[in-house]
Each structure stands twice: as structure tokens, then as C-alpha cells.
Amino acid sequence: MARGIETLQVGSLGTFNSLELARKYGARYMLASTSECYGDPLEHPQGESYWGHVNPIGPRSVYDESKRFAEAATMAYRRYHNVNTRIVRIFNTYGPRLQLNDGRVISNFMKQALRSEPLTVYGDGTQTRSFCYVSDEIEGILRLAVAEIQEPVNIGNPDEFTILDCARLVRKVTGSHSAISYLPLPQDDPKQRRPDITKAKRLLGWEPKISLEAGLRLSQAYFEQAVELGNAGAKRDLPLVA
Length: 242
What we know:
Order of helices and strands: HEHEEHEEEHEEHEHH
Oligomer: single chain
CATH topology: Rossmann fold
Number of strands: 9
Structural class: alpha/beta
Strand order of the largest sheet: 1-2-7
CATH superfamily: NAD(P)-binding Rossmann-like Domain
Mean pLDDT: 92
Number of domains: 1
CATH architecture: 3-Layer(aba) Sandwich
Distance between the termini: 38 Å
Low-confidence stretches: 232-242
Strand content: 5-15%
CATH class: Alpha Beta
Helix content: 40-55%
Number of helices: 7
């Protein structure tokens, strides 16, 4: 509960405070939104014009609605205070320095595979996600930061994988023989996630270059050392980008 309240405070009060600073000093402002604003989408792939399908009182709602609120506040400051804003909708991102215990798909699978523990798959594993390697994600964000685009832009990898396929790929990359453990699917867990990046390609000349398998291999040394150290902080000299 405490973490949920903190998320709500950052997404609401934090956004307001930072927007006020941008307005006061005439600063350019970029909001890091995410694909969570689409909820459990009824449109696939998800384009920026899609309004989303979100349960406003469900267990995921604090995070989902904080992002949707932050976007609304950012656009309001753009319209009424002429703040020079950008909104990036970030889809699943992974790579070196991802914390082991952050609960994300890639970090969970890599940690479990390298420890020879069962890989935890929720539901039957047919739900899909799209994973963007960190260097591709950063390039897209930087291009948006210097562009004159005020509407939201998806930055993510449109290559779509089932969670089960992702688990199998992690086992292949790590050489692990971990079993796969199935647990009940959490309430309101999105069934599909895949960004439509037509807008990013057309306006920013951007699209990701690194495949999931290549990105996992680029991340493996970091995760191996993080697991060996038994915490989320591997050495700083490990590679961050390709």
C-alpha cells in the first residue's frame, strides 16, 4: 500500500511541482509516461490515438492512472501556460543495470535462470509483451527531446513475444535448464502489449535495431555479476549500451 501511495504522489504532486518549475523558468519539459496508460488494450497494436482500457479502481490503477493523470496535467500546462512539453510513452525496456528485484519480466527471468530456479510465468504464458533494449530506447527519447512534437510518442520495440517464448529465449541465452512454473494471472494484467511506432519512424526517423536475443546476450554479463553479488548493484564498469 505504501508503495502505491508513493507512486500516486510522484505521478500527481511530483508532476505538478516539476511542471510549475518548467513554467517558472521557461524550461523544456519531458514527461516519461509509459504503455500503462493503455491499460489492458482492446486495440492492437497500440497507437498514440488510442485512449486506453483501464480499470480506475483495480490493483494496477494507482500506477496506470498516475501516468494518465500526468499526461493530462502536462497537456494542460502546454495549452494554458504554453510550457514547451514532450511526452514519451515508454514500452518495456531492459538491459544492463536493470535491478534484479524490480519485478520486471526480463530481470525476473534472467535472475531465475542464472540461479537455476524455476522461471515464473503467470497464467498460461500466452500474454504478449514487446521488449526494447536500453540503447535503442535512449536514442528514441533523445530524438524526441530535441524535436518539436508536443503530442505523445510511443518509443518501444514492435517485435512481440509471448511471455512463454520470452522465458524459453532466456533459457537458451543463459544455457539454463530451469523448469517453468505457472502461477495464476494477476487481475487486470494486460493480455497484449505492442507499440505502433509509425509516428516515431515518420517524425523522428527512429526505430529499434537490437533484437531481443541480441539484447539478452548484451545484458548477460551484467546479470551474471549481479546474481553473483547477490544484489541489484553490479559493477559500474559493465556495459550499458551496445
